Amino acid sequence: MKRALVTGATHGLGRTMVALLIERGYAVVAVDRVAAAGRNGVTDFVCDLADRDAVDRMLPRLIGTGPFDLVVFNAGVSATGRFEEVPAEAYRRLLTVNAETPMVMAAALMRAGAARGAMCFVSSLSHFTGYPGAAAYAASKDALAIYAISVRKPFARRGVSVTLACPGPLRTEHAARHAPDGADENLRLEPATAARLILDAALTGRRLVVPGRNARLFALAGRIRPQAVTRWMRRLVFERLGRAVW
């Protein structure tokens, strides 16, 4: 039986990925702050990925459950609002969960030979634009994206393909919590669609996946007209934020 490792596996996109992988015959090791009940074929590791000491203690046990045919670094947190209203602790947690921890885990898995086949780093559509109102979130996800691009060749030499996934807003509780007041959730992509597209890309060794037609058009616009798209994001998000959320 093939084995997969998914972080941020209890809610939203991660939960949907776990369900799809089980349908495809994978045994899944799931890492999250809490375990989801009633999932056959899943081994849960409960760990706060913002706590580096806890992550370091977990890694030897996690590596012992491998090797993994697929690794998906999906866990992520956000912080939205005016930067002066977001506390320093929120920045620390965001940068640790979104950037530092997946880099540390990826390096540990590769050193131990516990990853084989495919690895996927879930960044964000913000990789293609400025993100007024969520600057630290965008910075952390961009750091992860650059890391994924940078390790692609050395990981490939060890038999592991690297896929960078940049989903846009999804129809999840997390996205709704950080969205501006009055945002239309119908414009967000269903997690099941995003999960399927991301997993298919990772398992076929694609370098980049931007799930959803609207997200791909946005990414293209961000590359062609970055300043205009950043101004649009300011009007769409920053100017409509009624509160800081972290």
Automatic annotation (TrEMBL):
It comes from Nitratireductor arenosus. One of its GO terms (molecular function) is oxidoreductase activity. This is SDR family NAD(P)-dependent oxidoreductase. Belongs to the short-chain dehydrogenases/reductases (SDR) family. SUPFAM superfamilies: NAD(P)-binding Rossmann-fold domains. Keywords: Oxidoreductase. Pfam families: adh_short (PF00106). It comes from the Bacteria.
